[in-house]
Each structure stands twice: as structure tokens, then as C-alpha cells.
Amino acid sequence: MSKYFDIDKASIVRIIDYLTEKGLVIREKNTLDRREHMIVCTEKGKTYLPKINEAFNLVNNSAFKNFTEQEQTLFFEMLNRMLENISGLPAEYYELKYVKSNNVSK
């Protein structure tokens, strides 16, 4: 799972611990492989799914307002290519430099 989300394993464990404490998921051992655990959404957790989907759709619709379907597809294709380009770089190469500018044109 950590590889899928590109998040370190310790962070994934903390997230799952938090969700478990809140009663939203449970861990079940995989009967075929004792080293593996299955994360299962509880009934309480399932009650949040409609709100999560609604929030996801709201953000997506806002972000892609005035984009055609073709533009959205192109955006994700280019984003995936960029990710592939940098995926082999060591983590210390990722650096974000943010400079706030007061010269914002309207």
C-alpha cells in the first residue's frame, strides 16, 4: 500500500492506527500469508463513504471547471509522464521552493 501511495510504511501504519482507534477500519490477518494484514472498512467507516465521495467530487469539479474532457485526460497523461520522469530520482532531489510575490497581475 505504501508503494501505491508513495508514502513511507511508518506513515501508513500511523494512518491505519488512527483509523482503527476511531473504529473506521479493522486489521484482519491474511489466512494465506501471516505476514500480511487486510485492512477492512467497518460499518461505521462505510457511513462516511458518501461524504468522502461528495467531497472528492466537489474538489474535482472545482479544479476542472471550464476544462473539456480532452483537457482533463491530457492533464492526467502529462502528470503521469512527469511522475515517471522523476520517480527514479533519490528523495533528496525533490525540493519545493515557494516565493510569495506581491506582483500579482489581475
Structural write-up:
With 106 residues, the protein is of the alpha+beta class. The chain has one domain (2-93): Arc Repressor Mutant, subunit A (Orthogonal Bundle), CATH 1.10.10.10. It contains five helices and two strands. The chain has helices at residues 2-5, 9-21, 43-46, 49-63, 69-86; strands spanning 25-30, 33-41. It has a two-stranded antiparallel ribbon with strand order 1-2. It is extended and about 50 Å long. 1% of the residues are buried.
**What CATH first level would be assigned?**
Mainly Alpha
CATH level-4 homologous superfamily = Winged helix-like DNA-binding domain superfamily/Winged helix DNA-binding domain
How many beta-strand elements? 2
| Overall geometric form | extended
- The CATH topology name reads Arc Repressor Mutant, subunit A
Q: Cα-atom Rg, whole angstroms?
A: 19 Å
- Strand arrangement, largest sheet? 1-2
- Main beta-sheet annotation: 2 strands, antiparallel
SS-derived structural category: alpha+beta
Number of helices: 5
Order of helices and strands: HHEEHHH
Let me know the average pLDDT: 85
Number of domains: 1
Identify low-pLDDT runs: none
Separation of the first and last Cα atoms = 43 Å
CATH architecture: Orthogonal Bundle
Share of residues in strands: 5-15%
